[in-house]
Amino acid sequence: MTGLNAHDNQHTPSPTPPATSWATVPTRSIAVGGADFAYRTYGPVGGVPVIFLHHLAANLDNWDPRVIDGIAAHHHVVAFDNRGVGASGGSTPDTIEAMAADAIAFIEAMGFAKVDLLGFSMGGFIAQVIAAARPELVRSIILAGTGPAGGEGIERVTRVTYVDSITAILTNKDPKQNLFFTRTENGKAQARAFVARLKERTDDRDAAVSLRVLRTQLRAIHAWGAQTPADLSAITHPVLVANGEHDRMVPTSNSYDLARRLPNATLRIYADAGHGGIFQEHRQFVTAALEFLAA
């Protein structure tokens, strides 16, 4: 999204990210198209940065430290709150395409000429639009717990989200425990461990995501699911597709569909795992992601 007046309103983005863990990396801000975007960046400088694109109703503190630290041990990592989300200013876009345009504007404001994308769930929708709209900006893509436009069951995300969230609240759980993990004993234990990891950062926490943002993003996801199935043949980048075998939010059949229709895709499916399979099986996923990025 060229032509926006995008500049850092506090500093020039540091060429040497100072932190070594997600629990301590500072939150920074950069002006993009009239709004300040909150972001965090760390990991070794040099090479192609990995841009993390997060899920429905997520802010920076919703990234699993084991996943993002694992990638940042070998790559320059950048994660940000999209417009209107968390500590970022402006109004939340109500289409995936508008979210992707903001992500492109952020990437360009940061001065990156080429990036790798890691999109989880809704972030995977955004990554697909970025790759199709600006193929020269992208080197490779990791799509986790996600699906194509018009994918099977994506239009039902709103119902699943509300039902599982209400159930979680009534049983004193984080909604992600129901939405992201299986109901097996292993899945329940992994869910508790994941929620505990999200609390490891105690200082400089991100702003909470409002109910209004949730509803706006759900409208965007519903529209994505209701679209005519996308032509994915133009996305020729190397793609790693990953998911759990029992994804209730974005049915796992969509991961198989992506891997079949994308010309240059590799598929990883994790047993006894759900939508948050990359968090549950974070060791396996980080190993696969690092091998993929190195290749």
UniProtKB/TrEMBL annotation:
This is Alpha/beta hydrolase. InterPro entries: AB_hydrolase_1, AB_hydrolase_fold, AB_hydrolase_sf. Residues 1-23 are annotated as: Disordered. It comes from Antrihabitans stalactiti. GO terms for molecular function: monoacylglycerol lipase activity. The keyword Hydrolase applies. Pfam families: Abhydrolase_1. Residues 49-280 form the AB hydrolase-1 domain. GO terms for cellular component: membrane. The keyword Hydrolase applies. It comes from the Bacteria. Keywords: Hydrolase. GO terms for biological process: acylglycerol catabolic process.
